[in-house]
Design brief:
single chain; mainly alpha; two-stranded antiparallel ribbon; 4 strands; about 10% strand; UPF0295; YgzB family protein; transmembrane helix; cell membrane
Length: about 120
């Protein structure tokens, strides 16, 4: 993972980046009309189209992140005790950035039988 956050949050971050880049390019294109007058209209049209492609990419990324979020496994983080979503075998908590895994071979700590019984007793 690139930014050390949960995978779903990283996808949402990329969607936000595409949105901001697309809007920035559209504003830059509009500045061409203001500063160059008639010749700036071609400049504005080109940057409006490129900006619109960036905006459509952000819609696609947000849609993809939403579809992944609906099929994500929900579990309780052992550090902050909040419910978080996990994609794949390993991911990070959305809130405290703790590394989480569903694979017992990759886990650094597995609860013992006495810890599991203590957790079950507190849940009652």
């Amino acid at each position: 993972m690139f930014f050390k956050s949960s995978k779903i949050n990283e996808f949402r971050l990329w969607g936000l980046m595409f949105t901001l880049a697309g809007m920035g390019l559209m504003i830059l294109g509009t500045a061409g009309i203001v500063f160059w007058g008639q010749a700036g209209k071609i400049f504005a049209a080109i940057f409006m189209v490129i900006g619109m492609i960036g905006m459509l990419l952000s819609v696609g990324v947000y849609f993809w992140a939403g579809m992944l979020s609906t099929s994500a496994v929900i579990l309780t983080c052992p550090e902050c005790n909040r419910q978080t979503k996990i994609l794949g075998k390993t991911d990070r908590c959305m809130y405290c950035k703790t590394k989480l895994t569903l694979d017992p071979n990759q886990a650094t700590h597995s609860p013992t039988l006495s810890e599991e019984i203590a957790v079950d007793d507190t849940a009652k």
